[in-house]
Write a structure and sequence with these properties.
Largest sheet: 5 strands, mixed
Main location: nucleus
Shape: elongated
Pfam family, one: RNase_H2-Ydr279
Keywords: Coiled coil, Nucleus
Distance between the termini: 102 Å
InterPro entries: RNase_H2_suB (IPR040456), RNase_H2_suB_wHTH (IPR019024), Rnh202_N (IPR041195)
Organism: Meyerozyma guilliermondii (strain ATCC 6260 / CBS 566 / DSM 6381 / JCM 1539 / NBRC 10279 / NRRL Y-324)
Strand order of the largest sheet: 2-8-5-4-3
Radius of gyration: 37 Å
Order of helices and strands: EEEEEEEEHEHHEEHHHHH
Number of strands: 11
Structural class: alpha+beta
Strand content: 15-25%
Helix content: 40-55%
């Protein structure tokens, strides 16, 4: 059995088995670049499953080696051969809507929203700074443009104009779908939201339902809109008519309560430490006052051999 290190393991959907795949680099709204798999008219984002889990509290986090990586190994076997993989990189492919990439590009430039432009002009404009667009199929690109652009057809040619209204509506549908999925499930994010909203100063463990629902909605908006510019996120909130002011007020009050509890806990710890020190000092003083000091040993004079009081009695006459 072979032993390998620094190996990458890709976890792919069953639909991608025995298929030639292309990996391309696409820009994100935060100016970073991510890797994606492309198969005909489908795109999959590649996510590295690292050892860090943001949902775990510090006291429950896994102890890692000095290298910072997770302690893991994989044994892969077939009928003919096998291998042991030492700390491989686990990379998962998740389905991705390429419309997010086009939203990021088209929302930041008036070129796409001022007037209707042809499909070829869109390819040329985007392709001048993003050569990756040449690696995508026309069907995939046209499908994305149809979700976020208004279209007109003249002389059997389709022209496109970016629409912030249509984009906000499309994203709102994604948020509502995600919110429904989270609310009717036992995802870890539900426990995380409850921990954030928990009031430690209240004996009532129940969180107001309206506050909880607003928090779930806010998290869904953040998850859906994490790939796009902030101004597009604001248009989604406006489109949905969401008012997060009650949640903001609740979180502000909760922050003040937690701050007061922390101050009270710190004061109690200081009082406890001061009391303990005072008890030690009093015990030391009381010991001296009651004469509990150790008595000195009485010094006994040493007598030379043959000079004792009974030595003469045993002498021969």
């Amino acid at each position: 059995m072979l032993v390998h290190s620094d190996t990458r393991i890709f976890l792919l959907p069953a639909s991608l088995e025995s298929t030639q795949l292309d990996i391309i680099q696409l820009p994100l709204a935060n100016k970073s670049v991510a890797s994606f798999l492309v198969k005909e008219n489908q795109v999959f984002e590649l996510k590295n499953l690292g050892s860090k889990n943001p949902w775990l509290k510090n006291d429950k986090s896994v102890t890692l080696p000095r290298t910072g990586g997770a302690v893991k190994s994989l044994i892969i076997e077939t009928d003919e051969s096998g291998a042991v993989l030492q700390s491989p990189d686990m990379i998962m492919a998740t389905k991705f809507d390429l419309s997010f990439i086009f939203i990021t590009i088209m929302a930041e430039s008036d070129t796409f929203s001022k007037r209707y432009i042809s499909y070829q002009d869109i390819l040329d404009t985007i392709g001048s700074q993003n050569p990756w667009i040449n690696d995508l199929s026309d069907t995939l690109i046209i499908n994305c443009l149809g979700k976020i652009c208004e279209t007109v057809v003249e002389n059997q040619e389709t022209f496109y104009k970016y629409s912030s209204e249509k984009t906000a509506e499309m994203l709102s549908e994604k948020v509502n779908k995600l919110e429904k999925s989270i609310s009717n499930s036992s995802f870890v994010i539900n426990d995380t939201i409850r921990q954030i909203l928990h009031d430690p100063s209240s004996a009532n463990l129940e969180i107001p339902s309206d506050i909880y629902n607003l928090a779930v909605m806010q998290h869904c908006i953040d998850l859906v809109c994490c790939y796009i510019p902030f101004k597009v996120r604001e248009s989604v909130i406006k489109k949905m008519g969401s008012d997060f002011s009650p949640l903001d007020a609740y979180m502000k009050e909760l922050k003040q309560k937690k701050k007061a509890l922390d101050a009270a806990e710190q004061a109690m710890n200081e009082v406890a430490a001061s009391t303990a020190n005072a008890k030690k000092a009093n015990a030391k003083l009381n010991g001296k006052a009651n004469g509990k000091t150790k008595p000195k040993k009485k010094q006994v004079a040493k007598v030379a051999v043959g000079k004792g009081a009974l030595d003469g009695f045993f002498k021969r006459s």
